Amino acid sequence: MLIPALRHDIQDAETIMLNKFPRSDLMRVDEK
Q: 20 to 30 A from 5, CA-CA: which of 11, 13, 14, 22?
């Protein structure tokens, strides 16, 4: 199925984003 693979890719992308930006910066963006 394509969906599990896609979901896995999304999780990888989220991990990369968390590694690039500190969690505090992400929280600041969410507050806006």
A: 22
- State residue 9's pLDDT score: 84
Q: Provide the sign of the torsion angle of the four alpha carbons 30, 6, 4, 13, taken in this order.
A: negative
Q: Which residue has the tokens 């991990």?
A: 15
Helices within the chain (DSSP H only):
2-20, 23-31
| pTM > 0.90: yes or no | no
DSSP state of 32: -
Q: Do 17 and 26 meet the contact criterion of CB atoms below 8 Å apart? A: yes
**Within 10 Å of residue 26's Cβ, how many Cβ atoms?**
14
Type of residue at 4: P
